[in-house]
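Example record

Each entry pairs one chain with its bound ligand, guanosine-5'-diphosphate.
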Amino acid sequence: MSKPTIAIVGRPNVGKSTLFNRLVGGRMAIVEDKPGVTRDRLYGNGSWLNYEFHVIDTGGIEIGDEPLLAQMRAQAEIAVDESDVILFIVDGKTGITDADEAVAQLLRRSKKPVVIGVNKLDNFKQREQVYEFYSLGLGDPYGISCAHGLGIGDLLDAVVEKFPSVGINDDEDGAIRFALIGRPNVGKSSLVNTILGKERVIVSDIAGTTRDAIDTPFTRDGQNFVIVDTAGIRRRGRVYEKTEKYSVLRAQRSIEESDVVLLLINGEEGIIEQDKKIAGYAHDAGRAMVIVVNKWDAVEKDGKTMDKFKKKIREQFQFIDYAPIVFLSALTGSRVDQILPVIQQVAENHSLRVQTSLLNDCIMDTVAMTPPPSDKGRRLKIYYTTQVAVRPPVFVLFVNDPELLHFSYVRHIENRIRETFGFIGTPIKILSRKKN
Ligand code: GDP
Ligand code: GDP
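Structure tokens for the complex follow.
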């Protein structure tokens, strides 16, 4: 499930974000059936030939008012930590600068595969400018023009050639991969420890690929699980780790790598804007989700506190009303034993396939009970419904005219599908196609 990651580094204005947009262009345009959340153009998915990959634009991560060199150092460190291949972009018009040298030195020491793109070589004559960049000591530089789309193919050929070969953990025996997401200090690290300590789990100890060092596989009651990015959760101390952009980046990555997302909320402090943003990513990515209210031990409670908190969550997170809510304390361990069974349940729903005849019965009943409203004298007709995908479940309605299928009616159908078949904890998507 895990795709390789490319990180783009380089000085400001060399063309990183222009390249980023080119690499993720097609993928970002995938049409969602629900209004999404504004995306940070910092992390995206791309593909080249048969390869699919993640792309990070480290230029989007700024660390306070640090001077240029310190900024670039931090960005290069992030690239080294987070990626499989680094795309180092330099400006062919300006030539090598001190900052380029400093980054090159850091990258050389890291031993990570690096490909140099010498940008802004907009025509053939300028191609000679690439030779100067051999002196950075990072192998063959590739002349490109991100603005005009020149040389990008050769550059990507060089990048995908350096992707790691597929690791052992790609067949994880039906393991459920879950990620813990939430702002710093919400208790992610504590909850990982409590889950691993409290449950009678067998933590496998397979060394090898990069991902093995990052993720923690374990087994409980015969079910395999993987905690995604355990290393990232536990790591402490780098300056940039406290920046919001960086924590959002980590969250996006972990969401991509998992089946189930545990969104941790601090029971003492309530919900903040960033919690919603991250929940939005998980929803858009089609991941199953559980909302975990941690530090419940520290909350002064009466008989109504939990219901009140639940109500607040439902108000704030209307778009993920399918996510179950678990109140627990990573510190005392209270109710932590509920978490794995809930994860297992939502993962099952995430990959649930409904029998076509039952699905069509459900849709026909829905239409009979609440006919779709007519629009300028025309009425939607649904001929046939089928489930085309799982993880998450996707349904396609074959209709007379997709324009007549309004958002509110889609919502109504979604509710009926949920009432009939469950699907607790997973987003579902409903698409329509014109029946010819
Ligand atoms: P970043 O700061 O590294 O992300 O750089 P940007 O992608 O924002 O680009 C900085 C400037 O360089 C913008 O004005 C771009 O239009 C320009 N630029 C990017 N790629 C090229 C290129 O291939 N040729 C030329 N001539 N300009 C480019
Ligand atoms: P992370 O940054 O999200 O990984 O958070 P940590 O696991 O490092 O926890 C941050 C702080 O919150 C630590 O001081 C923990 O002891 C504390 N903490 C974590 N879980 C709980 C909890 O359930 N109850 C209380 N009272 N404190 C907790």
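The chain has a mean pLDDT of 87.
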